[in-house]
Amino acid sequence: MGNPFSLEGKTALVTGANKGLGQGIALALAAAGADIAAVSSSGADDTAAKVQALGRRFVHVQADLTSLEPIPRIIEETLATLGRLDILVNNAGMIRRADAVDFSEADWDAVIDLNLKSAFFLCQAAGRHFIAQGGGKIINIASMLSFQGGIRVPSYTASKSGLAGITKLLANEWAAKGVNVNAIAPGYMATDNTALLRADEGRNRDILARIPAGRWGTPDDLAGAAVFLASAASDYVHGTVLAVDGGWLAR
Q1: Among the options 120, 130, 156, 174, which is catalytic?
Q2: What are the distances in angstroms from CA 22 to CA 14, 135, 228, 233, 238?
Q3: Which of 14, 71, 114, 214 is the most exposed place for a label (fewest CB within 10 A)?
Q4: Average pLDDT, the chain
């Protein structure tokens, strides 16, 4: 029996892979042997250089996922350039902050469209391909707010709660077809999305006080979970939302 965590010969499509958690996940999958198709609305030269330094092939598919229009092209370009598709990581997302009594329809729609609507339809497009080829792996990037309410982020909480539900629904429908659908719920991570929280002395102190690990997470902290859920090691894992949170939910 070979290494069940190896991704040699596989291709992974990672959205939002130009920076932050998406880049960290793309590099972890590449280190395990996968070629990478990175989807983002801006350039991904840094990710490209790092993936290629690991000896893996790389293609950047430029697309704005606030619309469903580019989704068929994303799948087509990945297959045309890299020859196959085995793994989808739905990582692209945004957050808008305001008190619930003041939250705007525009901020609601922008977050739901990217974090939930586009994620579902990317799952659908990749799922059709995976079912036809007899298998594949989908990893949705959920959140602590898939479990909790949070404050001042109503559309983000709704989108990440919905994404956890969609993950379970798709697992129910596709597990018998050889397609694994799971999610990773990162805890408080040091990324652009949390820059304002980390800059707020009081909020930063309160957050760290609740994390048993005593620190903010980094993109590298998601590497093991991502490789596990992308690999044959997780072939009997379906519909789980795996928290990588430094112990936040245990507190």
Answers
A1: 156
A2: 7, 23, 16, 21, 22
A3: 214
A4: 97
